[in-house]
């Protein structure tokens, strides 16, 4: 792994250290896990948005009636 530097305010660093102590893990482990989860989520989100935009460009979108019917199926008034 390659080292890097990040500035973290004292409050957040204290919270991180408390969490690390409670989990019996090093601070670096928790930072790595947090970054990993964040990056995985953001990559997924960007892909989903791009895929959705491609569907819109192709006209693959639900009509108002289809959306209303889907909401009605779950007992939601979509007026």
Which helices and strands occur, and which strands form pairs?
Blueprint: H1 10-23, H2 27-57, H3 64-73
Helix pairs in contact: 1-2
Commentary on this structure:
- The protein is an all-alpha fold and 79 residues long.
- It has one domain.
- It is built from three helices and no strands.
Provide a quick synopsis of the model.
With 79 residues, the chain is mainly α. It is 70% helix and 0% strand.
Q: What is the domain tally?
A: 1
Shape: elongated
Order of helices and strands: HHH
* Helical percentage: 55-70%
- Low-pLDDT windows of residues: none
Biggest beta sheet summary: none
Tally the helices.
Answer: 3
Number of strands: 0
Provide the residue-averaged pLDDT: 94
> What is the distance, rounded to the nearest whole angstrom, between the alpha carbons of the first and last residues?
53 Å
Structural class: mainly alpha
Q: Cα-atom Rg, whole angstroms? A: 22 Å
Strand portion: under 5%
Key features?
79 residues; mainly alpha; 3 helices
């Amino acid at each position: 792994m390659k080292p890097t530097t990040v500035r973290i305010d004292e409050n957040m660093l204290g919270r991180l250290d408390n969490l690390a102590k409670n989990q019996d893990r090093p601070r670096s482990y928790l930072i790595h896990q947090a970054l990993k989860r964040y990056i995985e989520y953001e990559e997924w989100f960007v892909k989903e948005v791009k895929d959705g935009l491609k569907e819109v460009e192709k006209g693959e979108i639900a009509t108002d009636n289809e959306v209303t019917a889907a909401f009605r199926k779950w007992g939601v008034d979509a007026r």
